[in-house]
Amino acid sequence: MKKQWVLESVGADGTRSDFVITQLPCRIGRSKGNDLVIANLGLSRDQAVIARDITGQLRLTDENSTNGTFVNRHRIDGYCLLKENDVIHFASAEFKLCRRLLDEEDALSFDQMLTMVMPAGMPLSEHFAPNEAELDELIMGQGISGAAQPIVDAVSRRVVAYELLGRANHPRLPGSPIELFALAEALDREEALSQAFRDFGVSQASPRLNGNTLFINAHPKETFSAAFLASLERIRKASPTLDIVVEIHESAVTRIEELRELANRLEELGIRFAYDDFGAGQARLLELADVPAHFVKFDMTLIRGLHNASERKRKIVRDLVQMVLSIGSVPLAEGVEDEAEAQACLDMGFCLIQGYLTGRPVPVDSL
User: Fold this and answer.
1) Which residues are registered as beta bridge partners of 28?
2) Cα 239 from chain centroid (whole Å)
3) Are 357 and 340 in contact (CB under 8 A)?
4) Nearest alpha-carbon partner for 250 in 338, 320, 183, 184
5) Residue range 251-278: average pLDDT?
6) Which tens digit of pLDDT belongs to each residue from 34-80?
7) Residues forming beta bridges with residue 59, ordered by sequence position
8) Alpha carbon distance 171, 7 (integer Å)
9) Nearest-CA neighbor of 364 among 66, 165, 108?
C-alpha cells in the first residue's frame, strides 16, 4: 500500500468515489483521448492537465477551456499549484484532491468512472468545502486571534466584564467569525473551531483582565458534550482565579434536564453562566425559571430602536426584564449603539449594557 493522489467525486445518487491519478501528466476533458474523460457537456474537449511542477507539487493547467477550471471556486488563469483538499471544478464537474493509502489493484481506473451529464452554464456544485486544510491550520493555532468587547454597568458605565470573541488573520481564510463557522459547519468542525477560539482567547486575556469577569462563548452543537466540559476543566485548571461566565445559546434552554446537569457541573467548577440571545428564538420563560442563569443577555433585536418603539413593545421588554430580575438573574442589553437606547435600557431596569456605544471589540492582546 502507498499514498496516492486521487480525485474524489460525488455521484448523482450522493455516493462518493475515488479515482486514482495513476500517471502524470494526467489530461482531463470530454474527448476520448484524455486520461480522465468526463461526459459533461460543459467541459471542453481538452479541458486541463495535471502535471508535476518543478517544485514537486502538482500543477493544474487550464487548456484555454470555454467554461473554465476552478480551484476552491476561483477560476484559474493559466495554471495553479495544487495542495491536498483543494476543491477543483472542471467547468461544473466537481472533485476534491486527496491523498489516500491505497492498494493499486483496488483502485478504480478513470475509464470506470460514472458521470452525470450537466448542461453548460450551471452554477458550480458544492459537494466539497474549500479551504479544509487552512481551517485545520487555524484550529491548530496558525492565524488564530481574538477580540474582547467591554460589558459595562448601566448606571456608572464602569467596565465590569469583557466578552471574548473569536477572530482570524489567516491569509487564506475570511476574518469574519460568521463565515468561518459557515466553513466549519460544512466540514463538521464547529466544535473544534469554537474550542480553539476559546482556548486561545482565554490564554491571552486571562493575565490582562485586572479582576474583570470574562464571558466566553460555546457553539450550540457543543453545549452538552463531554468534550466541552473537559475544555472548561482545562481552562479552570490553567486559570484557577479567573471569574468566568459561559454563554449558552438560547436554543439549548429547552433541554431542561441536560441544562440542569450542566448548571450543576459548572457550579462545581466555579463557573457562572448566561443565556445568550434571549428573545431571538425559541427560549421560553418557563425554562428560564426552572434553571435560572446568572445573566440573561437580551438579543439586540429587542434593543435596537427601543427608545422609539411602540408602547406595547416597551411594556413587553420591561416586563421581561422584571421577570429576569425576579428569578435572580442579571439582565444585560446587547447591541446598544447610542445614548437614547442606553437611557431606554436604564429605564427598563437593565443592569448591564454592551455595544458600540460603550466599547467596540479590541484585540485581546491590547487589553
Assistant:
1) 36, 48
2) 26
3) no
4) 320
5) 90
6) 888 887 777 888 999 999 988 888 999 999 888 899 999 889 988 89
7) 51, 81
8) 26
9) 165
Query: Among 119-133, 229-243, 289-303, whose mean pLDDT is lowest?
Result: 119-133
3-state secondary structure of 314: helix
Return d(Cα 235, Cα 102) in angstroms, integer.
41
The CATH architecture that domain 2-119 belongs to is Sandwich (2.60)
The domains of the chain are located at: 2-119, 133-366
CA distance 279 to 299: 6
SS3 151: strand
| Cα–Cα nearest to 128, from 68, 85, 163 | 85
Among residues 305, 365, 361, which one has the least CA distance to residue 148? 361
pLDDT tens sequence across 270-315: 999 999 988 765 456 667 788 899 999 998 888 989 999 999 989 9
Same-fold call for 2-119 versus 133-366: no
> Radius of gyration (Cα) for the chain, nearest Å?
26
CATH number for the domain running over 133-366: 3.20.20.450
* Degrees, nearest 5: CA angle 126-41-68: 60
Nearest alpha carbon to residue 63 among 81, 45, 89, 87: 45
Q: What is the pLDDT of residues 143-180, one digit of tens each?
A: 999 999 999 999 999 999 999 999 999 888 888 888 88
C-alpha cell at 357: 456605544
Lookup result for grid cell 434593543:
303
**What average pLDDT is seen over the chain?**
86
Please give, one letter per residue, the 3-state secondary structure of 203-267.
Answer: HHHHHHCCCCEEEEECCHHHCCCHHHHHHHHHHHHHCCCCCEEEEEEHHHCCCHHHHHHHHHHHH
Cell of 124: 458550480
